[in-house]
User: Fold this.
Amino acid sequence: MMESYEVYDNRVPFSTFAELHWKRWKSFGDRAIAEDGITIFECSFLQNHVGELMNYQMKDLDAMKAYFSELLNTVADLSPVLIYLSHADIRESIERVAQERIFDDGGWIDGIIPYYESTPYGKKHNRVGMDGFVQTLMDRKEAELEIIASLPIETFVYECSGYDWDELWLRIESDLVLILGL
Assistant:
C-alpha cells in the first residue's frame, strides 16, 4: 500500500523528487520555526538523498552540492547543525552490521548487495559482490564529505570506528552545548 507513495529508487523523475523534497523541507522549516525545540533527523537530509542522487539519478558532485544548497535554504532560519558519523574502515563496519542483522529469511547483507548491484551506478561502475558494495559506500562517503564541506552551516564529522558510543555522545553533547548555548 505505502509502496505506491515511494519516491526513491528512481520511481519518479528527478524534477519531481527534488520539488517534493523541497516542499517537504520548506513545510517542516515553516512549522519548526514557530516551535521552541530541537529536532534530530537520523539520515533523511544527507544519506537518503545522496543515495538517490548518486545511485539512481547519476548526478555529479556539483549537481549534488547545488541540490543540497537549495534544500538547506528551506530550513536556514532554523540554524541547522549537521552531525556526520564516519567510519575509517567501511568494510569492517559492514561486516559488523551484517553479523548483527540476521533474519529468519536470511541476512541483511544478502539483500543489500544485490540492491546496490542493480542500481544504475552499480551497473555503470560494475560494482559486484561485497567488494563492489564497499566501493560504492566509499564513493558515497567521499561525496558526502565533500557536500558537507560545501554547506554554509555548522557541521561536525566524528570518527566512530572505536564503537565507544558513550564517549562519542559526550563529544557530540559537548559540541552542541557550545554552539547552541544550552
